[in-house]
Design a protein that fits this description.
heterodimer, A: alpha+beta, Thrombin, subunit H, 2 domains, globular, B: mainly alpha, about 0% strand
Amino acid sequence: MVATVAILYLTTGVSSGLRGGANIVITPFSWAVNAIARPIGHMLAGTVNYSDVVAQNEKLRYQLAKAQERANEEWAYARQLQQITTQLNVPFVGSLPTVAVQVTRLSPTNFSATVGISKGRDSGILVGMPVVANGGLVGRVIATTANGATVRLITDTASSVGVTFKSGKSSLIVSGRGLNNGLGATAVPLGTSVAPGTKLSTDGLNGALYPAGLPVASVKTVTLTPGAATYNLTLQPAANLRQLSYLDVVIWEPAA
Amino acid sequence: MTLATLIIVAIQLSVFSGLRFAGVVIMIVWLWPLVMGLAGLTALSLWCALVAGVFFDTHASTPFGLTAVVALLLAYGASRLGREGVGDLDSAAWWVTPLLAAAAGFVAPAIFVGASFFTLNFSLWRDSLFAAMVVNAAAFFVLARPMARVALWLGNLGGSRR
């Protein structure tokens, strides 16, 4: 019980200070390990001039993903336009500024889907800002330092996103199922018209964590348990979360 | 030994956390105090479990302290066995240390998820728990003896056995 209280206390209060301090202590060791480990990896890759190819490949993948993202956004804008014609009170319309960042580290543990990024508070990145890449929503900033930040991916088990589809007529809550398991939605009412391939985007409802119109996922499978009154959905994230090298942080904060 | 533990944490963060097998991270920050306990370095294994766990937790977005709690439990259990000479690299059969480490690697992720309930976090089990258990068991089996040798060597350098 004491341990539980201590963990809760540390989780909520002192941990941010501890994290900062521990980062300062560990960073030199990480640099040293990186200094040893990376050249060995590059030496092996360099035998066939592989590292240049990898770097080029990452840049091309980034450019391709940007194009894919634009295509997906166009779809979302078209849907928004349709909404505007039917509703006058639209919470968010228009393009938002972004900050391009590089992924510096992946989640260090099995039980959280996060990535570290190369820019932080000094670049205007704040906790709560959405992150997009590879054709859709990637996640949300959950912690920042002066020159870095941590992004919780939408596939994290603690992540949930309000989404809409069918011209904004229907809404769902999409939950993360872990880094290796993608996204899902449970308890979808039978009256909801949803089929494999249906695209979902952020709903941007008042107080939502994300602005409206960001592509989130498409429906992969629809499961109906016999006798149940609801569907379960398996979703394919719009962004390719397995290939994250560069991301865009959307300069947008959720309403307080 | 504290310095060695910080280096282990750095290796975990810089190498093993990016080197996923079947999408699973191998947790050498748990294996390190475990093999130290099996090697009979009781007090050091507990200290290193705390240091490794806390420093690792500062880099993870899971509830703070959970990795340290699991590491401490593993170190305590291993040191109980280590004090009895079970898993001794020189006198026990070659497979005893790897097998004990594999068992620990199998249960450690489950303990982590179980402990997370006490922090009111009920979602961690949804991730690839079973895969994490199996991969860590296999990795601990392979890495246990080399890491135990390193732990023994460092322990003898400091003259702090048992």
